[in-house]
Design goal:
Blueprint: H1 4-12, H2 19-22, E1 27-28, H3 29-43, E2 50-52, H4 53-79, H5 89-92, H6 105-108, E3 117-119, H7 120-134, E4 141-142, H8 144-149
Helix pairs in contact: 3-7
């Protein structure tokens, strides 16, 4: 599940959350690392083990487009109040069609070596540091209460 808000959160805080985790289920560290590494591999388009700005931007734009399409479909369903499969001109005017702008800089800040590339280790270390920050009792599991206290929004 890639809601745009979850994408932003995943790049800045914790990996993408499944719908079950989105309701703030505990997240074991091993699961967190596996999800983070899988996300890295999705972004690494040329599979060279490094993320460059172009790959991150391409990934974010593709995810934003998918999200915009899903949002448009949901808006269509919501706007079709008479359920006739058509939207009047007045209803159509309310439909947001422009996907939000994206920015690769949020993930490229993990580029510790300042070489224009984010390695899997840089990616994992930056993301894991946030996991450790939120896991206040240091039991290797981030609970809903710790997410709330750590300011991790849904």
């Amino acid at each position: 599940m890639f809601r745009l808000s979850l994408i932003a959160m995943s790049l800045l805080a914790i990996p993408s959350l499944s719908s079950a985790q989105a309701v703030r289920k505990p997240i074991p560290k091993a699961s967190f690392i596996a999800t983070t590494d899988a996300e890295f591999r999705k972004i690494d388009a040329n599979k060279d083990g490094q993320l460059v700005t172009a790959e991150v931007q391409q990934y974010l734009e593709a995810a934003a487009l998918v999200q915009a399409q899903e949002d448009s479909q949901a808006a269509f369903v919501a706007l079709d109040t008479d359920r006739n499969g058509q939207i009047s001109a007045a209803e159509w005017a309310k439909l947001p069609l422009t996907p939000p702008r994206t920015n690769a800089a949020s993930l490229m800040r993990f580029d510790v070596g300042r070489d224009g590339k984010v390695s899997l280790l840089e990616h994992r270390a930056a993301r894991l540091a946030n996991f450790e920050r939120v896991d206040t009792d240091k039991d290797g599991i981030v609970t809903a209460a710790e997410m709330e206290a750590g300011g991790v929004a849904r």
